[in-house]
Amino acid sequence: MGGRLKIALLLAPALVVIGVLFAGGLVVAFVQSLGYVPAIGMTDLTLNAYREILSDEDFFDSLVLTLYVSGVSTGVATVLAVVAALALRRSSGRVSAVVFQLPITIPHLVAAVGIALVVGQTGLGARIAALLGLVGEPGDFPALLYDEYSVGIILTYVWKEVPFIALVVLASLRGVASELEDVARTLGAGAWQRFWYVVFPVISPSVVAASLLVFAFTFGAFEVPYLLGKSYPTILPVMAYNEYRDIDLSARPTAMAINVLIALITGAVAALYLRLARDLGRRG
Amino acid sequence: MGKKGGNLGLAVAAALVALPFVPLVLWAVAGEWRFPDLLPTAWSPRGLAHLVEPGGGVLGATLNSLLIGLATAAASVAVGLPAGMAIGGYEWRFKGLVIFFVLLPILVPPLASTMGVHVTFIRLGLADTVFGVFLVHLVPTVPYTALILAGVFSERTGELEEAARTLGASAWQAFLRVTLPGVLPGVAVAGLFAFLISWGQYVLTLLIGGGSVVTLPMLLFSAASGNDPVITSALALAFALPAVLALVLALRVLKPGERAGGFVGPGKVS
């Protein structure tokens, strides 16, 4: 009994902070999404906001864009991370530590600004292209910011998240994979066979877990698309923010309904991640 | 893959990591850099001077960022340490559920919950205040400190504490003299982490601060939306500085084996 009380007391401060500021906020957001916002005189409970966004083309454009940005960012980052981890697994020392840790530590906004100055139409890339005689005017260089394909956003996410996934891959490579690989080599397996039949099965669960984290993060992140994205369609968190900032306060339930859907999707990914992580922990 | 291939790979990776910093550093000290010149044709201290200009607003914003970051780090460690001890140090029922609950704010964007608490914050007079911003910064930081410290506690066996108790120490003495010094490096990492997360916050400060609480990312964002790459780059470098310092510190303090585990979590610094 004393033990249980002790656990409860130890957990209490953190659970109160998360319970009030996070869970409480989500509950309020959900209630407001049902049209209950007494502060502005709305007290009827309805599903109108959900009905509205689910029949709204803008919402679907946003959803598709959000899935595209987070899906492509996660996919590209995962592939590059596995390649980088395999190529760099034997290098150690300060340079490789900085290479892996710096992008993880640098704020997203800094990365976004730096990437924009590299890939923008007057950026470093365009200047090099001009030097090579490929473009004459800045306008000749392809628009990679505020663009149809969200290239600037995706590049920023890839730059930030590759080292994160790569560190996870490195950690799982350090274990049983290298021993098994030596065995496979002795038995005459080629480089591709060693990767496909030995290394890949060992690292894939933790790669999937890390990718899920990156997907959930990029799905719900706000500032990089807010800075480098075009004005229509926007990704879902930016759409929710714009609805929330709308002078017309009756847009509030719509903003909250979008928020609730973002929370449901990322929450489902979180549950999936935890399940996977627990299974990984069980296997040792 | 031979040693040579590894070195070439490392060089390529290092170049890609360094790439976004090249224009940032050049622009920050550029006087004139027209298209299509590859390098600035004139240099100027204007960008860096803007950072320390009295009345320029950058010093005040930096102070706000520092104050909120330090308070957030201290509070997150105070709240996360006992939670980490419970999660990492003991076995109990419903632990998986509690871990899920603690992990949620890391994965579900705190934007949604913050819009939810906004109305209450306005009613309580917490909106547009530094204290209100500090409170919402705890949402992403407390889960990280709790989980990092849970990892630290799960590696302790409790044998030293038992020995101390056998030798006559009270539970409190054992905690203060044995447990705490043992977990101190972990506490430092967790605190540093919380500081960096708070320092990097943009949208939570924007929502709850409502423009009245100006931190460094607010200035960086409005500069980046404008048309002055010199000022933008100088601000970006200033904004990146704590992260770089933390990395240097981590590389000096932590032993090689600890490095990889020192920093985890996707994009946790924004």
Tell me about this structure:
The complex is a heterodimer of chains A (284) and B (270). By secondary structure, chain A is an all-alpha fold. Chain A has one domain: MetI-like fold (Orthogonal Bundle), CATH 1.10.3720.10. In chain A, 76% of the residues lie in helices and 0% in strands. Chain A contains eleven helices and no strands. Chain A has helices at 2-33, 48-54, 57-88, 94-105, 108-119, 124-131, 151-186, 191-220, 223-228, 236-245, 252-283. In chain A, helix 5 (108-119) crosses helix 7. The radius of gyration of chain A is 23 Å and the shape is globular. The model of chain A has no long low-confidence stretch (mean pLDDT 90). Chain B is mostly helical. Chain B folds into two domains: 1-44; 54-262, MetI-like (MetI-like fold, Orthogonal Bundle). Chain B has 13 helices and two strands; from the N terminus they run H-H-E-E-H-H-H-H-H-H-H-H-H-H-H. Chain B has a two-stranded antiparallel ribbon with strand order 1-2. In chain B, helix 6 (110-123) packs parallel to helix 10. Chain B is globular. The two termini of chain B are 36 Å apart. Chains A and B meet through helix 1, helix 3, helix 4, helix 5 and helix 6 of A and helix 1, helix 2, helix 4, helix 5 and helix 6 of B.
Mean pLDDT rating of chain B: 88
How far the N terminus sits from the C terminus of chain B, by CA atoms, comes to 36 Å
- In CATH terms, what is the fold-level topology of the largest domain in chain B? MetI-like fold
Structural class of chain A: mainly alpha
- The secondary-structure class of chain B comes to mainly alpha
CATH architecture descriptor name of chain A: Orthogonal Bundle
What spatial form of chain A do the alpha-carbon principal axes imply? globular
Oligomer: heterodimer
Largest sheet of chain A: none
What is the gyration radius of chain A calculated from CA atoms? 23 Å
Q: H/E series of chain B, N to C?
A: HHEEHHHHHHHHHHH
Reading off the top of the CATH hierarchy, the class of chain A is best stated as Mainly Alpha
Low-confidence stretches of chain A: none
Strand order within the widest sheet of chain B? Answer: 1-2
Strand proportion of chain A: under 5%
The shape of chain B, in one word, is globular
